[in-house]
């Protein structure tokens, strides 16, 4: 059963990549740049989340999904929303590389990156509108885009603020990252069946959000992990004066750390964190706590056992990184 479901998910993901490739005509004149993004698409965790929750509530859909099925279409659209945010994020963060390759704005300039992000974002909206079962579905998509932008703005307004709190950080990452994971999961439930169970929707909502929180905390810890190549530039947050969980824990435990931060020297901040390993460990505990809450969200939810195991593996994969 599990092997079969794993094989189904693999097949579904191939369909999603195919569906994304068909969209290159809608992003002209940036077709080549879009193609390069897809050639380096990563694990597509948000699309997987959507497909898994889609299958979780629709035991009847036990065969392979077609290229134009609502779940494949929705999963491709969710990845497009994610791609659009990344292309814009790399401009805002002035990041040179992502997934080990030069970013769009580095190779083609800011204007191209903004237009390409805009084109991908508008196609995401158009595609979701075309498969929406009702207006509440559209409202959730639009509201989540607002939350993502709001999360980014919260982060922006705390730039360089040594008084930033853990609660503030959590609010910002809930918006900028966890909201999209949550949306992927609930969209899957809504597209998988015309009559979604409220318990399954609640499980999708909570699982997605906690998984997304863990994902961002782990990503933020990774920024200080200079020994491990991740395809992204290191010490970028600190260079940009964005204070993430290990730094916030440092500020809470030692007010003198603020002076280290104000020196604006990433090497000094790194040296401080390396001399105080409890700070990164504390952040790892934060990520683990989110992952255990994600797993709890699956308890007792009406999810087919094979699918539930796959969701659990998704959380375990992140768990292995902390
Ligand atoms: C990555 O964070 C960025 C996000 C999770 C969200 C970015 C959102 C925007 C730029 C605004 C909304 C844009 C659109 C198109 C609606 P990070 O910089 O911490 O992670 P990274 O290490 O992957 O860059
Ligand atoms: Mg970034």
UniProtKB/TrEMBL annotation:
CDD domains: Trans_IPPS_HT. This is Geranylgeranyl pyrophosphate synthase. Belongs to the FPP/GGPP synthase family. Keywords: Magnesium, Metal-binding, Transferase. Coiled coil: none annotated. GO terms for biological process: isoprenoid biosynthetic process. InterPro entries: Isoprenoid_synthase_dom_sf, Polyprenyl_synt, Polyprenyl_synt_CS.
């Amino acid at each position: 059963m599990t092997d079969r479901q794993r094989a189904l998910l693999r097949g579904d993901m191939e369909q999603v990549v195919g569906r994304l490739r068909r969209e290159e005509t809608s992003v002209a004149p940036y077709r080549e740049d879009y193609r390069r993004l897809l050639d380096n698409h990563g694990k597509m965790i948000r699309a997987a989340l959507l497909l898994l929750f889609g299958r979780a509530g629709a035991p009847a859909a036990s065969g392979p999904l077609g290229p134009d099925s609502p779940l494949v279409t929705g999963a491709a659209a969710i990845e497009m929303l994610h791609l659009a945010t990344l292309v814009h994020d790399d401009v805002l963060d002035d990041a040179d590389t992502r997934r080990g390759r030069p970013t769009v704005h580095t190779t083609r300039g800011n204007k191209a990156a903004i237009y390409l992000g805009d084109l991908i974002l508008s196609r995401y909206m158009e595609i979701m509108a075309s498969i929406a079962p009702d207006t509440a579905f559209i409202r959730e998509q639009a509201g989540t885009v607002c939350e993502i932008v709001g999360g980014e703005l919260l982060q922006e307004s705390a730039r360089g603020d040594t008084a930033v709190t853990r609660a503030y950080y959590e609010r910002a990452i809930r918006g900028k990252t966890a909201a999209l994971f949550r949306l992927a999961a609930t969209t899957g439930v809504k597209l998988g069946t015309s009559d979604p169970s409220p318990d399954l929707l609640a499980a999708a909502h909570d699982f997605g959000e906690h998984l997304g929180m863990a994902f961002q905390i782990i990503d933020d810890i990774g920024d200080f992990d200079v020994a491990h190549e991740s395809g992204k530039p290191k010490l970028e947050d600190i260079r940009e004066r964005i204070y993430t969980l290990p730094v916030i824990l440092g500020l809470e435990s030692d007010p003198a750390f603020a002076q280290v931060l104000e020196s604006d020297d990433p090497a000094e901040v790194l040296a401080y964190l390396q001399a105080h390993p409890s700070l990164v460990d504390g952040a790892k505990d934060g990520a683990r706590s989110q992952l255990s809450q994600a797993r709890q969200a699956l308890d007792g939810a009406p999810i087919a056992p094979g699918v539930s195991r796959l969701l659990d593996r998704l959380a375990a994969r992140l768990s292995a990184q902390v």
